[in-house]
Amino acid sequence: MIDFIPLEHFAEIYFNVLLIFTLLCLFHSAVVPIHSKKNLSFINFSGYFLFFSIVLYLGLRPISGKYFGDTRTYATYFEYYANGGAIVSLKDVFFHVYMKFCSAFMNVHIFFTLCDFLYIFPLYKISKTLFKEYWFYALFMFIISFSFYTYGTNGIRNGLATSFFLWGICYHKNKIFMGLFFLLSASFHKTMYLPIIAYIITHFYNDPKRFLQGWLMCIPLSLALSSVWISLFSSLGFADDRLSSYLSGEAAEGTFSSTGFRWDFLFHSSFAVVAGWYFIYKKQFVDKLYFQLFNTYLLCNGFWILVIKANFSNRFAYLSWFMMGLIIIYPFLKQRFFQNQHLIIAKVMLIYFMFTYLMFYIY
Asked: Per residue in 312-346, is it b (16+ CB within 10 Å) or e — as a string?
């Protein structure tokens, strides 16, 4: 366990180290071409160093509910199972089975380290699968995303579920394997039915223009009829009663620091929307999988916009935000658009991370 770092500085150190690393990437990209052997060696070493360092840093964190939210709750469950307790929840039962299995032969700190490995490995896997030797840039975009730290230390089950979904996307040409990972994802957290259904829809209709128009329409619809959408989706119960309670529940720990129509987070959501629009319509980028991922993002984010005033709408925001870094970086790593593309990639990473960095200090 990492007990030599004061808890109140744990996250601050993490984000400032990432800031230094982001600036290092910026300086490096200004002098080294993206295809050079020197750069490939640098990003390979950097990628694996970050991968294992973050797994250990987040996984070996102290047990604290004050600083790491649900970590304390999961630790309590784990100790209960380690002492021979029976499965206590039939909802998202696979996670509890996984926790009870692990409690038989490892301590709680190894368990959390394994959780963070399983959280980050699929991000590495999809980056490596889609972008080959340039996988570092995609993985880094995942790591510097606004919600990455939170779902590696607090909403662990949700973080694992979204990562398993991305692992499934690695097998988009093998529907059986993809379906198994989607099932695993939903077994860990039922809210994953939303991105799973959205992705399935894109197999039947995959026109970004219509999905983009729908996303834009969600903004005035939410402003005018937010209570109607919250009541409607709450009554439908979408997959299970937890989703309904997220919509209708009272404000509590784990929600955004303020409620109402969150223009700041809508601005954050627009990063991926603007990136997708720019590459598809301004740069004429054509890629079926990218269209599917972009449209899945638009569907999930549009749903969140409709219920943005709900107290637990952060739970729905993450169902699109976990894909944001991938949506932004994907075209950069598939096709050359700019003469100084390596430097532009680094600038995009810096701008993207600055939102995360500033939000840490603001909120």
From this structure: bbbbbbbbbbbbbbbbbbbbbbbeeeeeebbbebb
Burial of 230 from C-beta contacts in 10 A (0-12 / 13-18 / 19+): buried
**Cα 50 off chain centre by:** 17
Contacts of 153 (CB under 8 A, 6+ apart): 58, 61, 68, 69, 71
Interatomic CA distance for residues 31 and 45, integer angstroms: 18
Stated pTM of the model: 0.91
The pLDDT of 267-288, averaged and rounded, is 96
How far, in Å, CA of 90 to CA of 206, rounded? 36
Count the Cβ atoms, other than its own, within 10 Å of residue 274. 11
Residue labelled with tokens 């627009």: 270
Sign for the CA dihedral angle at 32, 35, 37, 40 comes to: positive
Alpha-carbon distance of 345 to 45, in angstroms, equals 18
DSSP assignment of 117-165 equals: HHHHHHHHHHHHHHHGGGHHHHHHHHHTSTTHHHHHHTSHHHHHHHHHH
Give every CB contact of residue 347 below 8 A, 6+ residues apart in sequence: 26
Tally of CB atoms within 10 A around 73: 12
Q: Classify the C-alpha dihedral 119-259-18-270 as positive or negative.
A: positive
- Please state, in angstroms and rounded to a whole number, the distance separating the CA atoms of residues 36 and 16: 28
Closest CA to 291 of 281, 299, 280, 283: 280
Cα separation of 6 and 1, whole Å? 13
Residue 266 · residue 324 · CB < 8 Å: no
Condensed to tens digits (0 to 9), the pLDDT of residues 288-347 reads 999 999 999 999 999 999 888 776 667 778 899 999 999 999 999 999 999 999 999 999
Tokens of 233: 């989706």
Q: How far apart are CA 42 and CA 62, in angstroms?
A: 32
Nearest Cα neighbor of 235 from 224, 245, 223, 250 is 245
Instruction: Quote the tokens at residue 109.
Output: 């700190």
Residue 347 corresponds to which tokens in the numbers above?
């600038």
| Residue with the two structure tokens 């990209």 | 29
